[in-house]
Amino acid sequence: MLPSVFLSSLVWSILQILLRSPTLIWLFLWLYMTLPVYAIPTQSQFPNILFTDFSRAITTTFGSGITLATVLTILFSLTDNSDLLNLHFRQQHPTEIGENKIQISGWIIALVNALGDKLGKKQTSSLFFDYEYSQSLWEEDGKKRRIKLIAGKLDSFANSLSLSPYDQDGNYCGKLSPISHDKIQPALVICPTSFVCVTQSCSPRSLLQTSQFRDIPLVTCVKGHAVHKNVPVLTGRCHSCQTSYSADHERFQDLSTTGKPWKRVYLNSAKYIKIGQALWVDRLFCASAVTAMYNFHASASAYAEYWNNTFGTGEVFISRAHIWQTFVQESMRTIAEESQINVELNDALNIKEVTAEAFSLLGEDGIIRAADKHSCEECTQIYRPVAETPAHVPPISDTDSNDSNVMDVDKKFVKMAVLDGIVMGPTHCAYDECQNDLSNSRGGSLCDQHHLQLGSYCLVRDCSNRRAEGTCACDNHQREWNTYKKYTTQNARSGIRRMLQHPGENYEWQPKAKGPNPQRHDDPNTDPPLPSNLFSPSRFYCVETICAPCGVVIAWTKFDRSESPTNILNFLGSVYPTEESRPDYICIDKACQVLATAVANQSWDIWKRTTRFIVDSYHYTNHRKQHFLCRKYCNPAPTNGEAPNLVIVEHSDNGRPIARRAFNTQVCEQLNAWLGGFESIAKRMTPSNFNWFIHAMLFYHTKYVIKRQHIKKQKKEAKEATDPEDDDLGLDEESEEESD
């Protein structure tokens, strides 16, 4: 041991050196801040006893009817509770004045109770010998004896495994550290889940493992969040049809197609998925990545950094590309499972091509498969032919409508769909009416096709001259090109980015603005003019969604240049092609515009027999009061009885009738508030990646909404089953004697 005087002088000398050199101070602070924020506790080895000793401990401690599962449960219950064992055995070895030796401590009793809840009555009974067991152990009088017997068995078993800080003579050997389970980790082998050939044109032959030992790849496998190194990956092959079977896909030759191409089937039942050249992960890892991206609006880069900082090691590094591969592979299988198919694509596609092909196959033009035939109390109301709004109920909103707008329907139920958009979208080719991916997402403005077509020509509109070297404009349009370059420098983009991130920040020298969107929703909406050049890529204007009032997403699409009524009508027509599929009401923030456009282009003849367009409650107050069309036909809650299915009556706790809207017309606004969290991520994606990302996120969102509704319904039914029916009436019950 060094003397304390020497240590004090050493520390003082180091401090003096640091104070003389600011560079060393900063270096010291940097090294301190880069240290891990947590400490890994010292671990003890797993009990290393002979199997004969372990078997003897089992047979001498527990009854002959104990199963292997019960033994392992007890074993791991002891090894995972080393702190509790320290507390228990310490009370058996008193050392201080006033301490008493307690053989069965409260600590071990707590473990007995937890173990009993885990095992259940049948498995707990197998712990006793025949001479110990009696039915009275499960009665209230025998509970204390039962706990004492099991506690003694756990105490004896722990001593047999040397899971005690004291030796057999009672000498203290040191605190029992957490037990390491590294020595008992299984040896993983990644192999196909099919054990026979499942090709329809072939017989169910057994699969052969044809790889030589030296050719079997050894990979890194992440199972949960545990990293396993040097895991062999085996591939099976059918000797007859030559179909190969891997853990996450099957590869076969399509003999029915010209050229007989090789196809790949992505298995929904895969336990492990390949996400890198020598990196495999299990489905728990995949589900964690997708769930984190959904719940936290996390990008692939953010989740990769989180995983590396939390679970990563120096030998394993998860990159952004790994997480994006994980997201695509997991979401593709989840959506395919909803459609009850396995995705079949051409073999040897890269991840960009897989993403595009997956959306083409599973995207269904933006229709969410999970919402198919969905119906619940929030989005479906019982049809009311007559308004039930009493005269003394306070009105929801003013109306000057009459009975000429009463819907002529003969239905048992009424449904509504809500439509709205959020301004966000990826970039695409700048050429007119072209929405293809950019050939170069960093600085390019054209797709592959138009880059080859216009690669040597001036990109100013209506100019066919050759461009000058090193520019995208001809000699006559260099001024326009220089202006474009001036405002696309890094400094200019930083200023524009600040303006976009702080739209309400105005200085005294700046003109006063009306706001980010001064246009009313009932103002005419036309497409913006075409740009004067093709120097920069175009960007999709918005993402348009159709939701049920309960929050279930029905469909979505992208609008390129504007949210025009024509685009909205075309979108509605593609989602609801038949009269039977159309809802009774469609709520749109600019419903009056859509209605006027539908009447003008005669598409109203298609909708008028089944559907009414109404404005959502929030934007209705922003529409002009003198707008006759909006007030007469698009009122979301008329109180004069002309739309009895839009207004319902409920009673307050004191019995007062209150009118409220039958449907939630703000559901799309609520969805957009959540969807907008992905705007910073999605706007940097290619259109193909954007399509799949948004479609997958809306699919998961719909599944979670339906799951929450199911849980809510179960709780409601359970409450109704336990509570008397008259509890909700708010009335005092009359006793039988009083009624007599």
UniProtKB/TrEMBL annotation:
Range of residues in the leader sequence: none
Coiled coil among keywords: no
TM regions (residue ranges): 12-33, 54-78
Region (Disordered) location: 505-530, 712-740
Keyword Transmembrane belongs to the record: yes
InterPro entries listed in its UniProt record: CxC5, CxC6
Keywords per UniProt: Membrane, Transmembrane, Transmembrane helix
Biased composition (Acidic residues): 723-740
Domain (CxC5 like cysteine cluster associated with KDZ) ranges: 186-311
Boundaries of every CxC6 like cysteine cluster associated with KDZ domain copy: 418-483
Superkingdom field: Eukaryota
Pfam family, one: CxC6
Listed name of the protein: CxC5 like cysteine cluster associated with KDZ domain-containing protein
Organism: Laccaria amethystina LaAM-08-1
